[in-house]
Amino acid sequence: MQIKEVIQHLETFAPSAYAEDFDNVGLLVGNQNTNVTGILVTLDTLESVIDEAIKNDCNLIVSFHPIVFKGIKKFNGTTYVERVVMEAIKHDIAIFAIHTALDNAINGVNYMMCEQLGLLNRKILIPQGGNIKKLTTFVPEAEADNLRTKLFEAGAGSIGNYDNCSFSVKGTGTFKASENANPSIGEIGKIHYEKETQIQITYPKHNESKILKALFENHSYEEVAYEITTLENKNQHIGMGMIGELPEAIDELKFLTHLKKVFKTGCVRHSVLLGKPIKKVAVLGGSGSFAIKNAQRAGADIFITADLKYHQFYEAEGKLILADIGHYESEQYTKNLIVTYLRKKISNFAIILSDKNTNPIQYI
Hints:
The chain is an alpha/beta fold. It contains 11 helices and 15 strands. Helix 2 (47-55) links the parallel strand 2 (39-42) and strand 3 (60-63).
């Protein structure tokens, strides 16, 4: 198996098309055509993780966080980022980062947080916009059913909890083929009138290349007329954070104690307690202060995230509890999720869960 085949599995799991614009996901180091000897899955790629990969004969590291986030102008080993990249190249180790692609996946980072807390009735907290597309094309009536089916098979026609979605209307198309054309219908130099079906069909943007391939391969016209637009609809299956409910309401102090135990954190920093039980819980792994208002609007009793600053705790405004469990702690189960997924898809070589604790923050 080559690295690009592993990447295909990861792209199915968490398409990089849904990563945030500021992020740096994908194959950061290495050649995608290299044969894989083993995969090491980690939260962060540090020098100790490179050593671990060498020891276990793994030439592909799948890392949650990207080791290269900004441009590197020099490679002289003065920073840990430069040393990691240099060692990876020296030992022919590829590094793939999945980061916010997995943050935004419905079965990703926040799914794992919900799993640890046993939350029910889960929904995406901030559904992502701009990733549902619509294809409009025109096809001879006799070809419409086949083309529609082929587009569905390529991944078109899905929106929210529905699939095989499309809209069709019949009309008459006209065209005149020039002397350089090779028309499948009509004659060169004569205006042709064709009974056509206009097909409109939605699709998730990460499937666009497959859908256009299906369009061109199953359309008889030499020149295929089509239009692609972006819908305003939010994608309820893609986005940041999740919100769910506990099976039963629990005292807020007991819940915070439980939270500390589940996420194995040295402390839980939280806003003022409100004197009411916890039932509805919002989570967002990593730095999630931007979602405080979203958690409030969703009716959460508590919002669990990381990296909250002093003044941001005031934003609770007596409407919910803000709980900061630590960046590493909120994402720690992510590597287990990736390993479980890859082991289901690939069984012919080792997929190893890194045993390195890469948390840079220590507690006393």
